Fold:
Amino acid sequence: MANMNSTGVILPQQPSNGDGEVTYRQSTTATTTKKSTPAKRASRACDQCRSDLYPTTTKNRKVQNNEHGSHSNSGTGVSNNTTSTNLDYTSNSGNDEAKHLQDRPSSIAQQSVYINPPPSTTSYDNNGYHMTAAAATGAGNSTSPGGSSASDYTKPDQFFDQGLGMASPKNMITESAFNSPRWINLNTSFPTELFTSGFETKERQSLSYPVLNSIAHQLTFADPQLISDLIEVYFSNTVYGVSPIVRKSSLLSMTNPRPCNPALLFSFLLVSAHATDHPKMKATPSTRENIIQKLTDLVIQNLRPLREISGRGTLDDVIACIHLGIVTSASEFKGESMKWWNMAWSLARMLKLNVENNELDEEQREEQRRTWWLLFLVDRHLALCYNLPLSLNEAECMDLYVPTDESVWVGDELLLPAEADSSRFKGPPFTVCGTGLFGMYLPFMAILGRIVELHFVIMNPLLENQEETIKTLKQRIRARLDTMEQSIEEFMSDTTNPSIYVLTWKEYCRCYIHIFHILSQGFWDPINLMDAMPSLLEDQEFCEECISHSIGAANCLERVLTVDPDLRLIPYFFGIQLLLTGITLLCIADHLEKGTSTEVRHSCEIVVRAHEACIVTLNTEYQRQFRAILRGAIQSFVFPELSEGVEQRRSRRREVLALYRWCPGGTGLAI
Structure:
C-alpha cells in the first residue's frame, strides 16, 4: 500500500531495513542510521518524491551511475536522480535497493500527485500511482516511451507549483511523455510555468519522431531526448525570424512524415541549437558550441550542390541554405553569411520557385511560395544591413501568389488552392494581407526594396543633379507608406477580438511606418549625417520628415516595449532598423548637446532601452557599440557635471561609427 502524508499526497514506497528504520546518506558523509517516526518517514518520502520530479546535475548523475551502475543500465533506462542537496536515500539491503530502483516510475507520465485520496473505485499500479479503469483492466492504446500507455494516466487540468503548494483538491500533477515541447525555449513566447515546472522526463533511448530515423546514426553526439526537443523548438523559435516554411503537422507526423533530405533535417536542429535554452545545451560550457559545430558540419556535408559537381539541388537544399545564412548573419561573422544567401538565391532561380507549378499538390506549392518570399524579404533586409544592391527584383515575383495566412499554415486542415481564394493575389504586396511575417512584414519589405533602390540612385554618379527625379521618387514612397498605414488600421478594424500576437504586430507596424519615412530620406551614413547636421537642422523637409518621424518612431517603440518587453517577435530583422532610426537621434543629440529638446532626449532614452532589450534577446556587436555611444551622447545633458571632455567623447563616438558606413563603397554592418 502506498504511503500518504498529512496533506493526502500519495507517495511511493520507501525502502527500509525492516525495523522501521530509514537510512539516508549525504553524498559527502558516511552513512548514518536513525530511528524514524511515521511523521519523519512521510517527510523523507516526500523528499524522495521531489527528487524524482526535479532534474539533477550532470555531475550528480555520473556519481550515481557509478554507485548503481548495474541498475541504471537496466531495461528501464531510469537515471537515478538526487535533489539539489544531494540527499540520496538508500536501503541497508542491496536487494531492497535494487527493487526500489526498478520500481521507480519510468516516466513523468507515471508521476501523479493528488491532494485528496482518489475514489475507492480507482486502481493503482505497482508503484502506488493512480491508473484509469482502462489501464487497470489491461486495456490501452499506444505505449509511451516509459512503457505505459499515454492514455492510462489522467490528463492534468493545470500545473503545480512545487514551492507554493498544490493547486486544486481535484487536480493532479502529470505530464504526458508526448507533451510538446518538454523543455521550453526561453527565446519564445511560451508560458513560463511550462519551463519552470521542474519536471524531467525519462531519458529516451530512441527518437520521438519517425522523420528523424534516417539520420539517427549520425546523431550519436547528442541524446535522443535533446534531438527530439530541438526539432520541436524549431517551430516555436522567433529569435531568428524563420516563419516555418515546412508545415509542422507534416514534418512531425507519426504515420506519414514529410520526406526530407538529411541536410534539411540537420539544419532544423542547427537553428534550434542556436536559439534554445534547453538545459542539456548548457551541461558544460562547451556543449552548445560542440553541438552547433557538429550540426553545421553535417548540414554542409549533406548539401547536394556541394557534394555533387552536377548536383541540381532541391527545395530542401534551398531551405537548408536559408538556415545556414540566418544563423551566420545573426553571429559576429555577418559577412560570411552572403555565400549561403547567394547559393539560396541561385538555387531558387534554377528551380523556378517564383513560378506557380500546377503539377504539385497545394502544400508543396505553398512551401515553394514561402521559400521564395522569405528569400525576397531577406534580400531587402540584407541590402539594408550590408549596403548592397538588391538580388531579387520585383519583376521576378509577378507570377507567384502571396503565401497563405499564418493561422491556416500552422494548422493541419486541408489547404485550398490559391486560385480558389479570392483574397490571394500574385506579385509583391504593398498592404497588409494577413498576420505574421508574410502578412504584415512582407509588405514593408516590398516598400523597403524601393527605398534601397532610391538609396543607390542617390549615390549613383550617373544621376548627379537629378534632384527633381529623386524628389518624385521620394513622394511615391511616401504615398506607399500612407497607403500601408491606412491598410493597417483597416485590417485591425475588421479583426474581431484580436489576439495579443496580432496586437503586437500592429504596434510593430505603426513603428515601421515612422522608421521607413526616415529611411526614405536617405540619411543612412552616420558620418555624413554628423557632418551635414548643422545645415540639415535648418532644412524644413529634414525637420518634418526625419526629426518628427524619429520622435514618432520612439513613441511607437515605447508601446512596442509595453507589449513585447524583450523585443522577441522579430529581433533578427528589427535590430538594423532600430539602429538606423537611432542614428538620426544620436546625430541631433551629438550636435545640440545641452540644447537638445525634452522630446529628443526622451526618444534617445527609449532607443537605448530598446537596444538593451535587443542585446538580451539576440546579442550582436553593433547593438552593444551603438547602445554605449548613444548613452554617452545623452550623458552630457542628463548629467551636466559630466560635460567635461565633450570633444574627446565625440571623437570616440565618431571613431566607432566610422566602422559602419552606408556611403559609396561602405559595407554597413559587415565589418
Observations:
- DSSP finds 24 helices and seven strands in the chain.
- The CA atoms of residues 211 and 619 lie 32 Å apart.
